Amino acid sequence: MELDPCPQCGVPKMFASEHLWLNNGDIVHSRARSSRLIFLESENLDPLFRGIERIIGMPIEHMVITAARRAYRVYLSAFIPEELRQKIQAREVDYGPYDEMLYEVGRVNGTGKYALVSHRFQGDENDYDAVTITEPHSVPLSVAAHMGAIEMFTGVEFGYRYEEVSPDVFSITLFPSPHPEELKERLRFAPYEHQDSDLELERCPSCGGPQALSECRWYPDRGVIVNRATGRRMAILGEALLTPIFHELEEELGEDIPRAVVEAQRRFTKGGFYTREDITDKEGFRKQLAFRGLGNLKELEMRRKGMSMRLENATLPLMVVGLAQGFFEMGFSYEESDVEWEVSPDRVLEAEVKPRS
User: pTM here?
Assistant: First the structure.
């Protein structure tokens, strides 16, 4: 797979043109601006899910896959015309070539390398779809992404099984299986509404993407993006793919889940993946959050006696709170701290961290 790089910053032109970094800490798709995107260190994701499991003492992977599957199905439907989906569901057109187009998009976005094994779609119980994925950005989210895509094409609900067949290579097989009605009723998505603000990232004069993207290197044949400044893997995802996971966990398991998410992110932040060098001043932290599409940092005060922050247009606030708490403890060598936060209806996150007495 060949990419046409920008002559000045080296970022694939397709990546820069398909994604827009807006002036309020948002990222959106240039052809479907109804939902937000995030550009994150993908190696954070599966450890976060495992950390939540350890804290609550029970597995959550099946809930992660089920919630994300629905989100992917809705998200991807914005890119495949309804007329084409109707032809596929009438079995007038094979969905295979269109699914492989999504494989290519996934490679550019850093989510891994899918490869078709075989599939059958005749509208009966013997239908299936089998693929492999190499170097997935997240195992459960990769399973969910493939389920969401095939369900979006076919209009059929699928179950799944997967296994690791060699190091970092997974086989995924889908088969017809209906999903619970109560879950369908819970998963609802509010359309994104942009609000102008004052946050502007430095831009490449040629392609218009954030200059910070020049620090990343694309490996399109592997479906991998690496931030050369940090050595960490990155991937771009829909915000609406992750938020429903946390909502569904809370609906299913109770009100302790938000604190479990924050605590899992705090532990991961301090576990060696991040370093003291990641802790910057307010303006640096503001740009890093905006580069990742997490919002517009308006206030940050970090002193030994405590930290407070105000993030407008916040997304994934539980992850942001855990990240900030972990950075506070790292910066002042605290073992533990206490954190409180609140998110307003218009997505303003306010958080306060204090050292534990």
Answer: 0.91
